[in-house]
Amino acid sequence: xxxxxxxxxxxxxxKINDALENGESVKQSFKVVNVYTxxxxxxxxxxxxxxxxxxKYDVGRDGFLDLPELKIMMEKLGAPQTxxxxxxxxxxxxxxxxxxxxxxxFLLIFRKAQAGELPEDSGLSYLARLTEINVDEVGVNGAxxxxxxxxxxxxxxxKFHDEIRQEQEERRLAEQERVNRRAQFQQKAAIFQHN
Length: 195
Ligand SMILES: [Ca+2]
Ligand SMILES: [Ca+2]
Description:
The protein is mostly helical and about 200 residues long. Among the domains are: about 40 residues, no CATH class; about 90 residues, EF-hand (Recoverin, domain 1, Orthogonal Bundle). About 75% of the residues lie in helices and about 0% in strands. The protein contains nine helices and two strands. One calcium ion binds next to strand 2. The site of one calcium ion (CA) has 7 residues, from strand 2.
């Protein structure tokens, strides 16, 4: 860690301690300091990229993505959602239940996406995957193509998909066995009849 970065953290820590001594609320800045340690699965660069994505769609600049902002975000990403869909998206990560997405809760989306905890066709799953590309550069159609290619690629390695394939294969084998058994039975029956 660069020494300037470390002194930044120490300075912030000192400010928090001062504020605490004065009985002030320091909840928010405390959270900002901690996202790097809480979301240890992401690199600092990733978190900074997520922060700039978040800021881009936090049009009101209040540090939260509310429902109208999320609505516009999903439209811009080429995956518009219904009002109920948007509410469900927020509820999925709204741990403090204030009806909007803080940056920390925003990071939960990507944590869940990475852990495979988001259903394929859920709004948050679209959000997580579509924000990986720069829609401004490739355009919405480009984003859609990229997205479809990405889903296809993911399906190939997806565990769920593998299980379905395995199930289909098992069903195919069972059906084959049934056909074989019937053929054998008919053969035996034919021999029996000839005798
Ligand atoms: Ca906002
Ligand atoms: Ca919240």
